[in-house]
Design brief:
mainly alpha, 16 helices, signal
Amino acid sequence: MRYFDRSAVALRRGLAATGLLCLLGSGINLAQEPAAPKAAPAPVRFGSPYNELKYNAQFQAANSPTRKMAELVVNRVVIDSSADLDMFEQLTSEVRNRDWFKGYFTGYFFPQMAELSPPRTGSPVHDLPKLRKDFFQKYLGRIRKEKPYKELVELTKQTMVELIDGNYHPAVRFNAMVLMGELNAQEGQATGTSSERHPPVLDLTVLNYLYLKVRDKNTPDYLKVAALMGIARHAALDGQFPTNQRSIPNTAIAAIAKPIGDEFLLADKPPAGRTLAGHQWMQIQVMRILGDFHDPGVGGLYAKKLEAIQNDTSQPINMRLEAAQAYAKLELPPGAMNPAAKAVEVGYVALDAADLELAALRAEQSRRAAVKKAEPIDAGAPAMVAGGEDLLGGPAPAGSQPGNATKGSTDGESNEFRIRSMRRRLKARLAGAEYALRGSDPNKVGGLLRYAPNGSPGAQILAPVSIQLEDFMGMLNNNSATLVELIAAVEKNANDLRAMLDKTPFKRTAGGKSPAAPAGESLLPDAPATAPATTTDPLLSPDADPLLSP
């Protein structure tokens, strides 16, 4: 079910810390940053510009008896749902099991997240996304007893706050902020009887912390990206429930939505030190938040902005698709929009996505022909040649990317890396348009369809557009098609969609134009590599997102 997806929901991935509560009775204080518990000072390696968390020396050796004892205690807590730290039988005469449990994370697991090598240049030793995944899948996500779960959550908050606010490597700080955004007050359970199954319970102190970090002018952009991802996850999990069942109070939603909506969504130009692509990536996160908060803005201000972005052909295609999905989630007053006209607009955005991918497929065909003409290559031999598109979705300059194995024929096979990536990307984009029309939950009426009851003029136009998109996506499931066959199929389906849209009484709507990107900067933030950066903050990629990655 949708709410058990830890990364957020259907086309989301998602993504929290410490805090305190109390805004207008909402349980959230958005006025000042909560005081975080102070962790022990972290050691600094000689010559290193960054701190590291201190290992417990007795835990570092794989065959260490101390580490094995701690792992035994941790596994008992995780696997045995009846285990309670207070009731643990002491394994030694001196050390309680709680100390073993806490010591394993503070003395071994968490220090891995800040370990650098070599210390002078400082790059993380470990795969940070994998460590984050392991933390939830192997430990926190499996604990069913309330007391040890809360104890580990609080311990995690303290450590992540130290990593976020301390002098740690930017990748370490980014990873800590993402992990914070994924914390819950209670894990969801997808198995068992109907009475046993339940969604995650959000931790509102985490939401408060994330919001404050986004609003803090001293927070670097790469940390704001991670914090926005966490807020988007909270909004997505909460937004799928009826208003009277939501855990985030309306007062808190209003207090969060307006400041970030005004700061990010309404600002066409990025502030000094932020790239346009990075600013657009942050705008996408805010679109998701506003959509899941169902907030059209005062006087429909955000709804109008989303509509303008959706219909502006100078905007990145994924910006337009995200705007369409967010708009379709807003709570609009009766008669505020024509669902039939909106469905046609979304259809044209999907058509633009198809035309863009069709151009990329043809570029790949030309590239293969040029490679074959210049230097015959044996089937399956690796070739260092340009790809059909760069990471941002635009044409890649010759020689800019290493190629994958290239077949001897100009057709090649559709399951090669580039073709697979382009097919998956187009399918994800069409799915985004379909979600705007019908919503992402097949068991619920969502999207624009909420405003077009059966038999209404809106439904009579929306339904055929939706069916056409579903047929288009179904065609993309053909993994055995050659490149030539795939090009022909995409072209045919795009033409069918174009003919259908052109027959409706609604014409294409031209939205307001956004400022042009600076010379040499792409307008297509299709890859997570476009996360914001300044002259001092590195480009740090958020977790892969179905709409933003090939």
